[in-house]
Amino acid sequence: MRILVVGSGGREHALTWKLIDSPQVSKIFVAPGNAGTASIAENVDVSATDLQGLVSLALQKRIDLVVVGPEVPLAMGLVDAMHDSGVPAFGPTQAAARLEYSKAFAHEIMDKCGVPAAASRVFTTSAAALDYLAGRQLPLVVKADGLAAGKGAIIVTSVKEAEKALKDILERRVFGEAGDRVVIEDFLEGWEVSLLAFTDGTRVAPMVPSCDYKRALDNDEGPNTGGMGCYSPPAFFDDNMAGRATSLAIMPVVHAMADAGWEYRGVIYAGLMVDEDRIRVLEFNARFGDPETQIVLPRLQSDLAGTLLSCVNGCLDPATIQWRPGCSVGVVIASGGYPGDYTIGYPITGLDRIDPKVAAFHAGTRLEEDGRIVTDGGRVMSLVATGDTMAEARERVYENITRISFSDMMYRTDIALREVA
Questions:
Q1: Using one digit for the tens of pLDDT, what is the confidence trace for 24-40?
Q2: Is 145 left (phi over 0), alpha (psi -120 to 50) or beta?
Q3: Domain extent for 13
C-alpha cells in the first residue's frame, strides 16, 4: 500500500512510525509533516486544510489509503472529497464528524440514545446564558460549540468568571466561528479517561485507555493546552470498566449515527469522567487524540494499516486487534510561554542521545537546509517510553528528557506521578 498521512503534529509522526512497520505498506507520504516524519517518510508541502491540493496529491501519487490526523480537515469534508475522487480515506465523513465539531450536536445524539453525560444547554447570547446561570450551582463549564484547538472549555466558579467567558466567546469572538454558540454543562467530578476505539460503522474495537494532562503546569495549574502528557493504562480504569464504557457510551453513538444516515467509520474518541463506578461522557472527538495516539500506538501489537483499511471497507474484526502488556508514559516538551506567546526557531540538541527504547515524536519542529532541527510550534515533541511497570516507563522517559535541550524549553514533571506515588 501507498499511504498518505495528513497532518503535521506528534500524532501524525506516531501514525507514520507505526504504519511503516506494516508488511502491507511500501511508501508513506506526509502532508505537510515535520522534521520527524521527514526522517522516516516523504514530506509533501501541502497544507492539511488544502482539500483540493490533497486530493490532487493522492491521485498523483497513486495513494491506496489516506489517513487523516487533525480534526479541521475532517470538519471541512476531506474524507468526502477523497471518496468522491475514488481514493479510500480513513476517518468520518463531514456529517459524521459533527460529533466533534459541534458539541451541541454531540449532546443531541447522546440524549437520543441514553448515553450518560453532563446536563447541558445551548445559547447564542450572553444575556440568555447568564439568566440560565443564575439558577444553577457553580462551578459550571462553558464551552465554545465548535472546534477551538482543545482550548474551548472554561471552568467557571463565579458569576464574574462566567460573564468573562461568555463575553470572550460570544462577543469578543476569541475562538472565531467556533463561538457562534456556547454549551453550558454541569461540572463533573472524578478522574478523566480517554478511550479511543476503531469502528467500521457497525463494529467497535476499543483501544487501551489512557489519561492525558491538559493544564500547562505541574499540579494541574496554569492554562488549558492541547495536552502536556499522557500515560496508559490508568489503574482505576480496568478492562471491565473499559468494556462498560464501550457498551454505555461508544456503541450506542455509533449505532445511532448509522440509524440517522451518518455512518461513522474511523476512530471515535470518548473523553470520560469516572467517579468510582459511575462513567459519564465529557466529549467526543472524531479522530486519533493528541497526545493519546503517541502513548497508545506503542502498545498496539497488531498491523495498524490492515486495521485502518478494514474500518474503511466495513469489515473490522475486533478479535484480531491485540495489545502489548505493560505501560507507556509520554511527556510533551513545549516552547516556553505555550499556550500563550512563544518564540520559534531555536535549535534542538541531544536528539542523537535518546535511548533507542524511547520514541521522540516530533510536533512543532522544522528541518533547516543545513540539517539542523529547530522549534516550530508550541508543542515541540513528545518523548514516549514503555516499561513493564508505570514506574519503569516514567523513569525512562524523564531520564531521556534531560538529554534534550533548546532555549525556553518547558515540560511538566508530574506525568503519571499519581500512578506511582
A1: 999 999 999 999 999 99
A2: alpha
A3: 2-91
